[in-house]
Design goal:
Structural class: mainly alpha
Mean pLDDT: 96
Radius of gyration: 15 Å
Strand content: under 5%
Number of domains: 1
Helix content: over 70%
Low-confidence stretches: none
Length: 118
């Protein structure tokens, strides 16, 4: 299950990296305008990212618990890639909307691979 494992780790690390870069470059205006909402949002995304990384490592190690954690983390990821593009669509930033669509599609493929046991 190399593909789902690598997918999970790359997306999880990418989520942490994206938020870290946005925070470091002060590109999160909601920290000033909607601090409670954005911190809850960031917390949810960090939980998602950490679970993706854990499930990816677990899949690489063929741990018995890994598919279950992978399904849960994929559900969390699917929620965020369906909801989050609205922010970018509102700003007319269509490349990010497209990127979320690609992540959703690749994630569905990863779930099907795990479900098929290959």
């Amino acid at each position: 299950m190399m593909y789902p494992a690598v997918f999970s780790i790359v997306i999880g690390v990418g989520m942490i990296g994206q938020w870290s870069a946005s925070f470091a470059t002060k590109q999160i205006p909601e920290l000033n305008t909607e601090p409670f909402r954005i911190w809850f949002h960031i917390a949810g995304e960090m939980v998602t990212a950490c679970m993706l990384i854990a499930s990816g490592i677990g899949l690489l190690a063929a741990a018995a618990w890994a598919p279950t954690v992978f399904y849960i983390s994929s559900g969390l990821l699917f929620y965020t890639v369906i909801v989050s593009p609205g922010y970018f669509a509102q700003k007319g930033n269509w490349i990010w909307v497209f990127a979320f669509g690609v992540i959703l599609t690749l994630g569905i493929v990863a779930v099907l691979v795990v479900a098929g046991g290959t």
